[in-house]
């Protein structure tokens, strides 16, 4: 049993002072409020729950900054994608593991304690499956185990290069599966995470561009009750192509033709109509928003104010992992709404409400739902995923409770996080993960070779 004492902690019921958490076997076993620390307690300042990055492509961390030179034609998501394909085609399983390990170390240092890994880099360089079809999934599991982050593995089904069953692009050959092959991949992936504490699995039909209606219906049962994630309406061209193919935009098509419910997470959903937003919220699915990547790729801005007002739930993901941080994603989410509506504190939810608190609460609940975590936060029975903030940081000094969250999310660049526990293990102390040095060294060796 580990006893942690916090001067202040954000519990599901709200802020409380002098909080003792008993942690046993990675779980919060007991909570006492209003108790003075004693010699058996490990003492800390202000604690908040760790949250999930609900959408990550780990291998893309290795190419951060490599697509920032404008080409001869219009530079869009579609041209960025060609750079991504070239990078993905060069990576070995060792490369994927070293890149993912550093990424997960960085996630923990920045307050993410679980990752939803939307994993589609499956096969060997020539597109043939590895002898162990789950070789790449196993490397993701190893990276999660080494770093200590919680893992929800979301193997991605990818069969086509465009709507209507178009043949896949040559650059996509490492992603492609038939339904039968994907069923084998899912079984092997379950085995790959089987010994990893707290890990779970879902499925990720990549997008309507990559999955036919018949294939979508065939693979959903492979989730076996787990989460279902899909990219939808990220780009205007995707919406136009879907309209030409089906007469409906992607989100409307999914809501009409797929069993979208609380298990589902629609990633991006950027270009949606008011009617889609209302129906999406009513379905109970989570909007998986990745504000930094959406800004990096020039996707557009999700109508978050309207979605939240309709009762919709959202979570945040780091997606391409060009920049990793809880505060960074939440800040960018709010700032996108401010630029759209030319107002401030758009997502606070009402007068007198802290925007930082509203954002953190929303991302915590939505991320937990999207990654099938039934108990979350600083609550008895929840996995002990805890983040402490350094209240001596210049942007946090003199602040209490929600004001600390506002200072962290809107007023810091780095250094605000002190310690992070995941599954009850203290992995980050003084802002640094215990494996930062070795993970960076291995990553640097890998990326120097890849970019050469």
Key features of this structure:
single chain; 452 residues; alpha/beta; Urease, subunit C, domain 1; TIM Barrel; 2 domains; 8-stranded mixed β-sheet; 5-stranded parallel β-sheet; 14 helices; 17 strands; 36% helix
Sum this structure up briefly.
This protein has 452 residues and is an alpha/beta fold. The chain is built from 14 helices and 17 strands. The strands form three sheets. The chain has an eight-stranded mixed β-sheet with strand order 3-2-1-4-14-15-16-17, covered by helices on one side. Strands 5, 6, 7, 8 and 9 form a five-stranded parallel β-sheet that branches.
**Low-pLDDT residue spans:** none
Which outline best applies? globular
Structural class: alpha/beta
Helix content: 25-40%
Largest sheet: 8 strands, mixed
What is the count of DSSP helices, taking H or I runs of 4+ residues?
Answer: 14
Q: Write the CATH fold name of the largest domain.
A: TIM Barrel
Strands ordered across the widest β-sheet: 3-2-1-4-14-15-16-17
Evaluate the radius of gyration: 21 Å
- Care to count the β-strands? 17
Question: How many structural units, i.e. domains?
Answer: 2
User: Averaging pLDDT over every residue, what do you get?
Assistant: 96
- What is the second-level CATH architecture of the largest domain? Alpha-Beta Barrel
Question: Which oligomeric state applies?
Answer: single chain
Distance between the termini: 49 Å
Overview of this structure, please?
The chain is of the alpha/beta class. It has two domains: 2-49 and 386-422, Urease, subunit C, domain 1; 52-370, Metal-dependent hydrolases (TIM Barrel, Alpha-Beta Barrel), CATH 3.20.20.140. It is 36% helix and 21% strand. It has helices at residues 77-90, 93-109, 135-147, 179-192, 213-219, 236-246, 250-257, 274-283, 291-296, 304-309, 326-341, 355-370, 402-411, 436-451, and strands at 2-11, 14-24, 27-33, 42-49, 51-56, 112-119, 150-157, 200-201, 204-205, 228-232, 264-268, 286-289, 313-316, 386-389, 417-422, 425-429, 432-433. The longest helix is centred in the first third of the chain and has 17 residues, at 93-109. The radius of gyration is 21 Å and the shape is globular.
């Amino acid at each position: 049993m580990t006893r942690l004492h916090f001067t202040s902690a954000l519990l599901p019921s709200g802020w409380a002072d002098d909080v003792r958490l008993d942690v046993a076997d990675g779980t919060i076993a007991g909570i006492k409020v209003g108790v003075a620390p004693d010699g058996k307690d490990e003492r800390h300042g202000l604690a908040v729950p760790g949250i999930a990055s609900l959408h990550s492509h780990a291998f893309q961390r290795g190419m951060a900054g490599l697509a920032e030179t404008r080409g001869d034609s219009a530079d869009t998501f579609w041209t960025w994608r060609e750079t991504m394909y070239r990078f993905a085609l060069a990576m070995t399983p060792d490369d994927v593991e070293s890149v993912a390990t550093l990424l997960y170390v960085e996630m923990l240092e920045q307050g993410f304690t679980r990752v939803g890994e939307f994993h589609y880099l499956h096969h060997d360089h020539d597109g043939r499956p590895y002898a162990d079809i789950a070789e790449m999934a196993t490397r993701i599991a190893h990276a999660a185990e080494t770093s200590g982050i919680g893992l929800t593995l979301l193997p991605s089904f990818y069969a086509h290069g465009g709507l209507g069953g178009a043949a896949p692009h040559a650059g996509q050959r490492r992603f492609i599966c038939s339904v039968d092959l994907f069923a084998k991949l899912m079984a092997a992936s379950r085995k790959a995470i089987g010994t990893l504490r707290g890990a779970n699995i879902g499925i990720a039909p990549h997008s309507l561009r990559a999955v036919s209606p018949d294939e979508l219906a065939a693979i959903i049962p492979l989730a076996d009750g787990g989460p279902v994630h899909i990219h939808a309406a990220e780009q205007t061209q995707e919406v136009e192509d879907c309209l030409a193919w089906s007469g409906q935009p992607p989100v409307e098509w999914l809501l009409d033709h797929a069993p979208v419910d609380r298990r589902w997470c629609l990633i991006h959903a950027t270009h949606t109509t008011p009617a889609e937003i209302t129906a999406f919220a009513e379905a109970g699915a989570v909007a998986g928003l990745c504000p930094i990547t959406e800004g990096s790729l020039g996707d557009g801005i999700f109508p978050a104010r309207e979605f939240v007002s309709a009762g919709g739930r959202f979570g945040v993901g780091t997606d391409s992992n060009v920049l990793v941080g809880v505060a960074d994603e939440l800040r960018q989410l709010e700032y996108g709404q401010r630029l759209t509506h030319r107002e401030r504190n758009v997502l606070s939810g009402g007068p007198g409400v802290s925007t930082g608190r509203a954002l953190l609460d929303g991302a915590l609940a939505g991320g937990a739902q999207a990654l099938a975590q039934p108990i979350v936060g600083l609550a008895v029975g929840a996995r002990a995923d805890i983040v402490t903030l350094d209240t001596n940081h210049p942007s946090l000094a003199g602040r209490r409770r929600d004001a600390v969250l506002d200072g962290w999310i809107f007023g810091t660049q780095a250094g605000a996080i002190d310690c992070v526990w995941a599954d009850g293990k203290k992995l980050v102390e003084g802002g640094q993960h215990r494996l930062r040095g070795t993970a960076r060294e291995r990553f640097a060796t890998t990326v120097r070779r890849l970019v050469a």
